[in-house]
Write a structure and sequence with these properties.
Layout (H helix, E strand, L loop, with lengths): L9 E7 L3 H12 L4 E4 L11 E3 L4 H7 L2 H6 L3 E3 L1 E5 L5 E4 L2 E2 L2 E2 L2 E4 L1 H14 L3 E3 L4 E7 L2 E7 L2 E10 L6 H6 L3 E3 L5 E9 L9 E4 L3 E12 L4 E10 L18 E10 L3 E3 L3 E2 L2 E3 L5 E2 L7 H20 L5 H27 L10
Helix pairs in contact: 1-4, 1-6, 6-7
């Protein structure tokens, strides 16, 4: 054990991963009075694609105690998205109430993740960062701890929030069910001026897939230079040149080299078990067309924290907590797969597997 960490080597809950899902789980567990350790492998700020957040995320952020910080962060706000799928382009608003139009967030993930992690620390969670989780510690069929680069930590419950490489599932040999062929989303950033994209993101479909574009930051306020992001997903194999850009961004300066993310539709067959839970992308992955990746991550983290607290307080048996969470995750995944399949079927040339 690394010197100075001996007094925190035992906890009620260990969370592996400091993204939105892991932070949500850690915050809510701490709010229930549980002793929590959060292990994050990378120092912050870390590179991560920007994220469009639906206004529906605000009640969850308030529950976590970060809404005021998010509102003060200066993230771009917008009333909806431009959508061109099977017809002409149209603006699809989020909605409105007596207070006015609902506004989404164009969250810069480095800042958003930092806000969440700062809240984790402020509420009393022990954050160990950077620290790499290497192996689970088992006692029969139960997970009892995590071996890391800084020593071994023990807890009654382990939460894998480490993302789409399914760290815990791979170690336990859990089945990963695939519901699409291999899908790769490419994304990148450009700088310059593109007024048509300054007020709302857009998603435009074509015969092969879709392209999403958005303004994500203003880099300089004295002499405005805008930062835009694009994401391209093809539902058939399609090579993309390293300098590829959407038509509306042609002529702008490439700010960051193109990157890729595996967004193949998949779900871990058993996202909860004896002493463990999987949240966010560790549990299930869908392509960004589903449009609620961070919302899904935060909701799963909150749900798991309630399950753990209910079990440890004697309001649920362990098996009930496992069954309820697995059912919820699988129902959500099936619902999204059905909706995504219906949407993709409306493409000019839908892929054969839909």
């Amino acid at each position: 054990m690394e010197p100075g960490l001996e007094d925190v080597s035992n906890a009620d809950v260990i969370v592996v991963g400091g993204g939105p899902a892991g932070c949500a789980a850690a915050i809510r567990c701490a709010q229930f009075g549980l002793k929590v350790i959060l292990i994050e492998s990378k120092p912050f700020p870390r590179t991560h694609p920007g994220e469009t957040l639906h206004p529906g995320v605000e009640p969850l952020l308030k529950q976590l105690g970060v809404l005021e910080s998010v509102l003060a962060a200066g993230f771009l706000r917008h009333q909806g998205n431009w959508v061109q799928w099977s017809a002409e382009s149209e603006f699809v608003p989020f909605g409105e109430d007596d207070s006015g139009a609902w506004l989404g967030f164009q969250a810069w993930r480095a800042d958003f993740d930092a806000i969440l992690l700062n809240r984790v620390k402020a509420i009393g969670v022990k954050v160990i960062q950077p620290c790499r989780a290497s192996r689970l510690v088992m006692d029969g069929c139960r997970v009892t701890g995590v071996e890391t680069s800084l020593g071994t930590f023990w807890a009654a419950k382990i939460i894998d929030a480490a993302g789409d490489h399914h760290w815990l599932a791979q170690q336990l040999g859990l089945q990963i069910q695939y519901h699409s062929p291999r899908l790769i989303a490419y994304y990148g950033y450009v700088t310059g001026e593109c007024p048509v994209r300054d007020h709302a993101p857009a998603i435009v479909a074509d015969s092969y897939g879709w392209t999403w574009t958005a303004k994500v930051r203003c880099l300089r306020r004295a002499t405005p230079t805008q930062l835009y992001q694009w994401t391209r997903l093809s539902f058939v194999e399609q090579k993309i040149a390293k300098d590829w850009l959407p038509n509306e961004f042609l002529g702008l300066k490439i700010y960051q080299a193109m990157r890729a993310a595996n967004v193949t539709w998949r779900i871990v067959s058993q996202p909860a078990g004896y002493s463990y839970f999987l949240v966010g992308d560790a549990a299930m992955v869908l392509d960004p067309t589903s449009s609620h990746g961070v919302l899904k991550a935060i909701m799963s983290g909150i749900w798991v924290s309630h399950s753990i607290a209910s079990e440890l307080l004697g309001n649920l048996t362990e098996q009930q907590a496992i069954d309820h969470y697995c059912l919820w995750i699988h129902n959500w995944f099936r619902h999204d797969v059905k909706n995504l399949s219906s949407l993709i079927a409306k493409l000019p040339s839908p892929p054969f597997w839909i």
